[in-house]
Amino acid sequence: YTVPYTLSLHDALPILRLAEGSSVLIRARGRRLGRAVERLDILVSDGASNILHAMQPEDGGGVFELVNLSETTRYTVRNRNDASLTYTVTVVPKPRLERLTFTVTPPAYTRRPPRQEPPTARQVRALAGATLRIEPGLPASMDAAFFRDGQPAAATDGRLETTLDRSCRLALDVTEADGLTHAAAWFCEVEAVADEPPAVRFVNTEMNQQVGLGQEVPVQVAARDDCGVRNLVLYTRINGEDVPLKSYDYGESREE
Question: Cα separations (Å) of 78 from 7, 41, 229?
Fold first, then answer.
């Protein structure tokens, strides 16, 4: 039995395997009674719904793009009551990278300890000059490729270590054993925060006071710095020279 209709799919495979988030462009041509058909439709099924789309006319055929695929999808190209074979696009989920570690080490002068960011963090703020270290924790069957602002970043022993000199986007591609690559399986926008100078203010209710010789004058000050305050020294000026008056040692850094 032969129907008076033939359909050819360019470069189509019965089963196509793609990474989650990929897109695929489908081109098809059909002929009926020796003439190109004027309209082609495509029936797309993702397991939850079946939707019939009109294909965009192109050079005697039709074109349609499946975009940002998240589920295995099947499609059939149709013209009236005639249909092509059913083709399958198998969607492979992105690796979840639950063992990935993202360590931010502040500049040494801050004397602050490293901190761990969760693998799901997509926006991170860090002091300019901090060291960023990403260890993907992938199984041996997978390979990692690192990128900084879209450019390849050199890795050592499967991990990336870089200095935050400006805000940037870090990303990680993962390639499986069969060569399938998951682009941006992990990514994070890192904002470089400038180190602000310390601020000191007097908190006395009265700044200008007249006192007698030998009287005590209470002085209250507050110091603040984004990296913490370890020591505060008050000076007084005597005969044009700055003379240390009082020193406060806070031990461990604190903001105020």
Answer: 9, 5, 72
For 132-141, the pLDDT digits (tens) are: 999 999 999 9
What would the pLDDT profile of 179-220 be if each residue is shown by its tens digit? Answer: 999 999 999 999 999 988 888 888 876 667 787 888 887 778
Closest CA to 118 of 101, 130, 139, 138: 101
Give Cβ neighbours of residue 74 (< 8 Å, ≥ 6 apart).
44, 45, 86, 87, 88, 89
| Distance between CA atoms of residues 250 and 248, nearest Å | 6
Q: What is the chain's length? A: 256
Angle at 141 between CA 140 and CA 144, to 5 degrees: 80
φ, ψ of residue 209 in degrees (nearest 5): -130, 150
Q: What's the per-residue H, E or C state across the chain?
A: CCCCEEEEECCCCCEEEEECCCCEEEEEEEEECCEECCCCEEEEECCCCEEEEECEEECCEEEEEECCCCCCEEEEEEECCEECCCEEEEEECCCCCCCCEEEEECCHHHCCCCEEECCCCCEEEEECCCEEEEECCCCCCCEEEEEECCEEECCECCEEEEECCCCEEEEEEEECCCCCEEEEEEEEEEEEECCCCCEEEECCCCCCCCCCCCCCCCCCEEEECCCCEEEEEEEEEECCEEEEEEEEEEEEEECC
